[in-house]
Amino acid sequence: MPTKAPAPRFTLPPEPAATPEPLPEPGVDELRLETVMGALSDPLRIFIVQKLLLDSEAYDHPCGWFGIDRPKSSLTHHFKALREAGITRQRQYGLERRSQVRIDDLETRFPGLLALVAAWRPAD
């Protein structure tokens, strides 16, 4: 019988000093699977979450770090949808918002979901 590969562990770098408070977001007990899945139904949003999970270089990242060629209003909509669903946490740094995945909260509420998101590939 083949052995099952262990689930990947996603971690955040340590929180820097003087990090702003997060923007409003649902609490862990308020995370709903249908809301999370609805937010992840858009391939661009899955890309954003994958990039944060697999390529993060810092505690949180500004919109420009993702390299997405879309109008700012469109990106704002997608980042807001992810935050309001409870998938990402955003903080305001002056005029810039930076995002990170709520790894611990999502793993607590929906174990294994982030591994599925990280492994997702679009259909050919």
TrEMBL record:
Residues 1-27 are annotated as: Disordered. GO terms for molecular function: DNA-binding transcription factor activity. It comes from the Bacteria. Residues 11-25 have a biased composition (Pro residues). Gene3D superfamilies: Winged helix-like DNA-binding domain superfamily/Winged helix DNA-binding domain. InterPro entries: HTH_ArsR_DNA-bd_dom (IPR001845), WH-like_DNA-bd_sf (IPR036388), WH_DNA-bd_sf (IPR036390). This is ArsR family transcriptional regulator.
